[in-house]
C-alpha cells in the first residue's frame, strides 16, 4: 500500500480538534453540547460515547440525555424545548436513528436552528443552498476539509457525488458548488453511472452499498472520498468497509480515504467545531434564530 496516497482522516481530525481546543482556551469560554440518545442501539451508543469524549478533550461541556426506547414523542419534544431555552446549552445533537414511533423530521425541526449542530434543520438546509453562513452537516464539512487539505483550491474541478441523502449527498453537492466545482449527483435512477463517474476529478461515495465503486468507475488521478461505513462478513469475521473497493481503487486514485480512519473521525471533529461556532454566534443575540415555540410541539 502506498501510504502517501491514503488520506489520514485521524490526523486531519486531530488538527481540527486541536484548533477548537486552542480557540476555546483563548476565548475563555466553555461551549455546552447536549447529546440526546433514545433507545439502546449499540452503534449509536458507541457514537455518543466517542462524541462525549471528544467534547471533554476540547473543553466543551457535554450533557448526556439517555432516554428509554419507549420515550414518547411529546416527552422528547419537551426536553428539546427546555434545551432550546437553556442559555448554557449552545448545541443540541439528537442521535439518529430514532425509534419508529417518533417522527424524526418533526423532532429535528423542533431544535432551534442556531443550536442545530448537525445542520439538519430546514432553515440551515435552505441557508446552505443559498450560500449563507449557517451550521452545516458535519460529515460533508469534514469531507470538504479533507479535499482542501489534499487539493487546495477546488475551483473548476468536476466532482461526482454518489448518493443523494439529506444527511450527506445533497449538502455535499451544495458545499462543492460553493467551492466552484462542477457537480454531478448520481443516484439509483442515474443512467450510465460508471461512465459519468469516470469523468470526475473528485469522487464522493455516499451510497451505502459495500464496495460498489471499483477501479472501473474512476478516472486515473482522481481523489476519492469514501463516506460509506458498511459492516460485512469476510472470511468468517466481521469488518468495516466503505462504498469503494479500496484495494481496486488505490492504484488508480491519486488520493483516497480508508474505511475506517478516513471520514469518520472528521465527522466528530466538525461536530465540535460546529458547537464552538454556535456558541460564538449566540454571543451576539441577533445571530441566534428564535427557538420553535414549545406550545406548537
TrEMBL record:
The cross-references to PROSITE patterns, in alphabetical order and at most eight, read: THF_DHG_CYH_1, THF_DHG_CYH_2
This entry's Gene Ontology molecular function terms read: methenyltetrahydrofolate cyclohydrolase activity; methylenetetrahydrofolate dehydrogenase (NADP+) activity
Determine the domain of life of the protein's source: Bacteria
Locate the Tetrahydrofolate dehydrogenase/cyclohydrolase catalytic domain: which residues?
A: 7-118
Q: Which Gene3D superfamilies match?
A: Leucine Dehydrogenase, chain A, domain 1 (3.40.50.10860), NAD(P)-binding Rossmann-like Domain (3.40.50.720)
Give the Tetrahydrofolate dehydrogenase/cyclohydrolase NAD(P)-binding domain ranges. Answer: 137-282
Q: Report the InterPro entries cross-referenced here.
A: Aminoacid_DH-like_N_sf (IPR046346), NAD(P)-bd_dom_sf (IPR036291), THF_DH/CycHdrlase (IPR000672), THF_DH/CycHdrlase_cat_dom (IPR020630), THF_DH/CycHdrlase_CS (IPR020867), THF_DH/CycHdrlase_NAD-bd_dom (IPR020631)
Q: What is its EC number?
A: 1.5.1.5, 3.5.4.9
UniProt keywords (A-Z) are: Amino-acid biosynthesis, Histidine biosynthesis, Hydrolase, Methionine biosynthesis, Multifunctional enzyme, NADP, One-carbon metabolism, Oxidoreductase, Purine biosynthesis
GO CC annotation, single: cytosol
Its BP terms in the Gene Ontology are:
L-histidine biosynthetic process; methionine biosynthetic process; purine nucleotide biosynthetic process; tetrahydrofolate interconversion
Q: Where does NADP(+) bind?
A: 163-165, 229
Job description of the protein:
Catalyzes the oxidation of 5,10-methylenetetrahydrofolate to 5,10-methenyltetrahydrofolate and then the hydrolysis of 5,10-methenyltetrahydrofolate to 10-formyltetrahydrofolate.
Q: Which NCBIfam families match?
A: PRK10792.1, PRK14186.1, PRK14188.1, PRK14194.1
PANTHER family according to UniProt: C-1-TETRAHYDROFOLATE SYNTHASE, CYTOPLASMIC, C-1-TETRAHYDROFOLATE SYNTHASE, CYTOPLASMIC-RELATED
The protein in question is named Bifunctional protein FolD
Amino acid at each position: 500500500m502506498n501510504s502517501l496516497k491514503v488520506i489520514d482522516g485521524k490526523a486531519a481530525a486531530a488538527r481540527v480538534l486541536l484548533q477548537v481546543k486552542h480557540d476555546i482556551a483563548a476565548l475563555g469560554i466553555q461551549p455546552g453540547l447536549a447529546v440526546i440518545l433514545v433507545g439502546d442501539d449499540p452503534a449509536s451508543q458507541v457514537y455518543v460515547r466517542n462524541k462525549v469524549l471528544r467534547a471533554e478533550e476540547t473543553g466543551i461541556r457535554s450533557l448526556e440525555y439517555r432516554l428509554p426506547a419507549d420515550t414518547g414523542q411529546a416527552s422528547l419534544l419537551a426536553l428539546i424545548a427546555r434545551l432550546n431555552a437553556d442559555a448554557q446549552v449552545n448545541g443540541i445533537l439528537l442521535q439518529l436513528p430514532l425509534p419508529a414511533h417518533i417522527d424524526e423530521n418533526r423532532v429535528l425541526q423542533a431544535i432551534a436552528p442556531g443550536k442545530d449542530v448537525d445542520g439538519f434543520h430546514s432553515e440551515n438546509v435552505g441557508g446552505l443552498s443559498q450560500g449563507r453562513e449557517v451550521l452545516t452537516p458535519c460529515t460533508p464539512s469534514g469531507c470538504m476539509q479533507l479535499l482542501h487539505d489534499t487539493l487546495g483550491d477546488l475551483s473548476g474541478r468536476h466532482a461526482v457525488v454518489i448518493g443523494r441523502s439529506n444527511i450527506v449527498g445533497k449538502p455535499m453537492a451544495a458545499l462543492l458548488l460553493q467551492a466552484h466545482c462542477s457537480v454531478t449527483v448520481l443516484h439509483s435512477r442515474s443512467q450510465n453511472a460508471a461512465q459519468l463517474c469516470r469523468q470526475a476529478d473528485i469522487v464522493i461515495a455516499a451510497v451505502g452499498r459495500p464496495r460498489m465503486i471499483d477501479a472501473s468507475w474512476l478516472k486515473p488521478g482522481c481523489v476519492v472520498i469514501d463516506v460509506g461505513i458498511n459492516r460485512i462478513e469476510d472470511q468468517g469475521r466481521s469488518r468495516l468497509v466503505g462504498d469503494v473497493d479500496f484495494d481496486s481503487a488505490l492504484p488508480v486514485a491519486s488520493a483516497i480515504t480508508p474505511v475506517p480512519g478516513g471520514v469518520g473521525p472528521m465527522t466528530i471533529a466538525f461536530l465540535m467545531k460546529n458547537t464552538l461556532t454556535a456558541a460564538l454566534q449566540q454571543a451576539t443575540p441577533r445571530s441566534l434564530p428564535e427557538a420553535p415555540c414549545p406550545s406548537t410541539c
